[in-house]
Each structure stands twice: as structure tokens, then as C-alpha cells.
Specification:
About 35% of the residues lie in helices and about 15% in strands. The chain has helices at about 55-70, 80-90, 115-120, 140-150, 165-175, 190-200, 205-215, 235-245, 250-260, 260-275, and strands at about 5-10, 30-35, 45, 75, 95-100, 125, 150-155, 175-180, 200-205, 225, 280, 285, 290.
């Protein structure tokens, strides 16, 4: 957590190849974590709403987990909602993930239960100097770097004016493939993805389909059928995990159902979220993700 950020300029021999020749390129970036993920291929960005539905969180984690298992580096912006679900899904699969920030890498924002693991096993990247806080105008700039670093962009859920649409439009301008997950036509979080589909994004329904569309071989087990998540070994964590089968519950409900004190329930939930075994949705409601095998 205390690693000194690595500073690169555009003249550096270590400057990422994907950041050369893009519109409005940064002149410098800072890295914290495993810089080798910048050299890995292929890479896909998974982005979407901060106020995602439980379904959207499930799908972001599901796609990230499956694509990371298939060898993709997962890129997102570490915002709440879809971004964090994508990072968590990649980490749970043992894969690589890159978080592109709208502030300096020395003090990542927002903080979440998986942050320490992301720094240790993934990579934080920013064009903003260490110590710079988040500003509204930083995020469209951040979004262009997400698009630049990826071979393709998947938008999971987005409102009509979502910032993730900026990422998608940057990607199209840079010649990247853009995919969108269709949603209910009467759901606000589907209005942005439906807009992208009208503008030429490709609809996708499963990780296997996405891999096929990108001309990557689908690994065995990515056919689209959900598989069981591994049950935690810790007895109390397992009780919490079992209580969430087919349910969406908050901390108080989980504590009541399991008979565990609220502080202990919160501690176990942080570990389960870090492991990618639960997802936190709007209103502090938790649920188990759905994954492809």
C-alpha cells in the first residue's frame, strides 16, 4: 500500500504503446502496482453506471471473471458500481486488472474493500500527479485513457448521460470495438446502452459470445451456464454466504439471519466482497454474483 508511484513521461522507453498517437495524449503518467499489466494483451475495458442495479453488478462481475480467466486484462475506472464489480471479478479469477483514476495514485478514490488487493495484484494508473484530488473535469480525461488502453470496451449499464458513454465514444474514435449489454427498455440504466446499440455498438449476451466476436477462442466452460461459487471455508463467512442464496439483504438482515454480531458480519462481508463472492449494490444491499463456468 505504501509503494512509491512510478513516474513516466511520453519520452520514456517504458511509455505504454497504446498511449502513443491517441487524441490529446497525456505527457506523463504515474503508476502504482504491477506495471507489467500494461504490456499484456489482450485488454478489455468494462465500464458502466455508479448506480448500477443488482443485475448490472452481477453481469459486470460475471464478464470480468470469465474474461480474466480467458487471459484478458480487465480495465476500469474504480468508481463505485460497475467499475468496482469488474475489478473484483478480475481479481477473484486471479487475473490482471488496471484501474485508471481521476485523481493521483497516492491516495486512490473512492476507497473500497478490494483496494489493497487491487494495488498488490493489479495496477493503478493516472495522468494526475500524486496528491491531486478528484475533480469533475478529470473524469472525461480519465475515460479517454481507459478507452486507449483497451482493445475493446464493454458497457454493462448506463443512463442516457452516463460518463461511460464518453468512454465508448472515445473508443469508437480510436478504432476500438464497442460492445453493450442490452437491458430492459423501461429501465433507466439501459437507456445509455440502448443508445450505444443504435449508434453501432455490438450487442452481447455472454462472455463466450464476446470472445467469439473478438475472434478469441472460447475456453472450455464459457458456454453461458452459471456455475456454483466456491463456498467460504470459514464457518461464519459460510453462514453469511448461504444466507444470500437467492436473496438480496443488507447488513442488519444478514446479522439477524445468521445470529452474528453486526461488526463481525461487516468484517466477513468485506472479505467476501474482496474475494468476489458477494456484490454490494445500491442502498447497501448485498447479493451473490452469477458467473459463467
Amino acid at each position: 500500500m505504501e509503494a512509491i508511484p512510478v513516474h513516466l513521461t511520453c519520452q520514456s522507453t517504458s511509455w505504454p504503446a497504446r498511449l502513443r498517437g491517441i487524441p490529446n495524449p497525456p505527457s506523463e503518467i504515474w503508476l502504482r502496482g504491477r506495471g507489467e499489466w500494461l504490456e499484456r494483451e489482450p485488454c478489455i475495458a468494462i465500464v458502466g453506471s455508479r448506480s448500477a442495479s443488482g443485475y448490472g453488478l452481477d453481469q459486470a462481475a460475471r464478464f470480468a471473471h470469465a474474461l480474466a480467466k480467458a487471459g484478458f486484462v480487465i480495465i476500469s475506472g474504480m468508481a463505485r458500481g460497475i467499475d468496482q464489480a469488474a475489478h473484483a471479478g478480475a481479481l477473484a479469477a486471479g487475473g490482471g486488472t488496471i484501474a485508471v483514476l481521476g485523481n493521483g495514485v497516492s491516495d486512490p478514490w473512492p476507497r473500497w474493500s478490494g483496494l489493497a488487493d487491487l494495488i498488490e495484484r493489479g495496477l493503478l494508473l493516472s495522468e494526475f500527479a500524486p496528491g491531486q484530488g478528484p475533480r469533475r473535469h478529470h473524469f472525461p480525461l480519465r475515460n479517454r485513457l481507459i478507452a486507449a488502453l483497451a482493445d475493446a470496451v464493454l458497457v454493462v449499464e448506463a443512463a442516457h448521460a452516463s460518463g461511460s458513454l464518453i468512454t465508448a465514444h472515445w473508443a469508437l474514435d480510436m478504432g476500438r470495438e464497442v460492445f453493450a449489454l442490452p437491458g430492459r427498455v423501461d429501465h433507466a440504466m439501459a437507456s445509455g446502452t440502448l443508445r450505444l446499440l443504435r449508434e453501432g455498438a455490438r450487442a452481447v449476451g455472454s462472455p463466450g459470445q464476446l470472445l467469439a466476436d473478438l475472434s478469441y477462442e472460447t475456453p472450455t466452460g464459457l458456454g453461458g451456464s452459471p456455475v456454483a461459487l466456491p463456498r467460504p471455508e470459514d464457518a461464519d463467512a459460510a453462514r453469511i454466504f448461504d444466507a444470500l442464496e437467492g436473496e438480496t439483504l443488507d447488513i442488519n438482515d444478514l446479522a439477524a439471519r445468521t445470529g452474528l454480531p453486526i461488526p463481525a458480519t461487516m468484517a466477513h462481508m468485506a472479505q467476501l466482497e474482496l474475494a468476489g463472492l458477494v456484490l454490494r449494490g445500491p442502498g447497501g444491499l448485498y447479493r451473490r454474483p452469477v458467473r459463467d463456468g
